[in-house]
Design goal:
single chain, three-stranded mixed beta sheet
Length: about 250
């Protein structure tokens, strides 16, 4: 094991790897300057709106930057890091990936917002709300793999749990009870996956795929057959109100 780790370290520090990342950074820097920078008119500014129209949170000043100058600075940073990578090399691969991602995304946003205003706060809030379920599922997948069971049926488990939570909360007029039902449902479907994989030796991928198909099919059927025609009775659970004790709730509202 120690020998394999040593070989991996040697590979990471080889010249070809350093050359590839250096050339990639240089090319991306040139691409940012030519494609984004030169396609922006001189004097244009990019305005990033940091507040929603209906927001009651503490107002944050909008970010206003000169478009062309900002793009050229980002291109210079990327190009300069590429040259340094070719000459000396960075020890941290994660830093290279982070800088490359940041400069490219930031320059793209500045270019797209040149001469207009862009609601950055709205984009970030929507991204966080959309990414939260994916991040939670990824954490569950990591925990499952620590037990030597691959679980790719997380989407199906979340679909079934969400639907049972809505139905239970609507029938009882109690959001906490709906949340409790969702936890029990997710545990039950996860237990089914465990029994199939551990006791009956079913292939993990096949079992997870079957759970995804089951979750998609059963939730679609129940929604079209019962929930859409009985909204007040089965599909009107409501949502938890923002909790003033948590400062993060005031950012969105």
């Amino acid at each position: 094991m120690a020998k394999q780790t040593h070989l991996v370290d040697i590979y990471k520090n080889t010249t070809p790897r350093r050359f590839v990342w250096g050339v990639l950074l240089v090319l991306v820097g040139i691409f940012i300057a030519l494609v984004f920078g030169l396609n922006v008119q001189p004097g244009q500014v990019s305005t990033f709106v940091m507040n929603l129209t209906s927001s009651k949170a503490i107002p944050i000043p909008d970010i206003i930057v000169p478009s062309r100058l900002s793009i050229f600075i980002l291109a210079f940073i990327t190009f300069g890091m590429g040259v340094w990578q070719l000459a000396k090399g960075f020890k941290s691969l994660g830093m290279l990936i982070g800088v490359l991602s940041f400069t490219f995304v930031a320059s793209f946003l500045v270019w797209s917002a040149a001469g207009i205003s862009f609601n950055l706060e709205g984009m970030i809030s929507q991204s966080l709300m959309g990414a939260t379920p994916i991040a939670l599922a990824a954490m569950c997948g990591i925990i499952s793999e620590r037990t030597a069971v691959i679980n790719i049926g997380l989407e199906g488990i979340m679909l079934i749990s969400a639907e049972t939570a809505v139905i239970a909360a609507t029938l009882t007029h109690n959001l906490t009870f709906g949340l409790f039902v969702a936890i029990l449902t997710g545990g039950a479907v996860g237990a089914l996956h465990a029994v199939l994989c551990i006791k009956y030796k079913v292939n993990h991928i096949i079992s997870g795929t079957a759970i995804n198909m089951l979750g998609t099919g059963i939730t679609t059927f129940v929604t079209q057959k019962y929930l859409e025609s009985n909204i007040d009775l089965l599909n009107n659970s409501g949502v938890y109100p923002p909790n003033p004790r948590y400062w993060a709730c005031n950012i969105r509202k």
